[in-house]
Amino acid sequence: MSPEPAGGYANEVGESFRALVPVSLVGAGYGVATAYVTADAVDKGKKAAAAAQPQEEGRTTRAAVAVVDTFIWQGLASVVIPGFTINRICAGSLYLMGSLTRWPLPVRKWTTTAVGLAAIPFIIKPIDRSVDFLLDSSLRKLYKSEEKPPSF
């Protein structure tokens, strides 16, 4: 998988800052991430269609499979699961600091944000591998084509 553009991490960054910013900014991060996922799915569909001969049978199906597979994979691996994971890491760290320390609330919130940001690089590969396994074990078995969808 190639490095993900900044738009793919917008929701994780938003979740990391949830304790410090208005919820609408966190939601905007999800909007940016969803726009990235959609653009990537459309791009993969165009590339799949372009790789086929103009009159080739199944060209449209191949493009549709690429779009659907990419959108679902990216939706899970770049938006849903990382957003949930960072949200829970931050919520847990804020709760634990509130229970175990006497730090003032602003310090706990900034520390929570730092913990969330620091966790992002560590959660990406395990989530990517898990989503690959999930799709390989389910949705990708439904594809009639022997070809594997575009790799990530």
UniProtKB/TrEMBL annotation:
Instruction: Indicate the family of this protein.
Output: Belongs to the MTFP1 family.
An annotated GO BP: mitochondrial fission
Secretion signal span = none
- Descriptive protein name: Mitochondrial fission process protein 1
Please give the organism.
Python bivittatus
Q: Which InterPro entries match?
A: Mitochondrial_18_kDa_protein
Q: Which GO terms describe its cellular component?
A: mitochondrion
Q: Which domain of life is it from?
A: Eukaryota
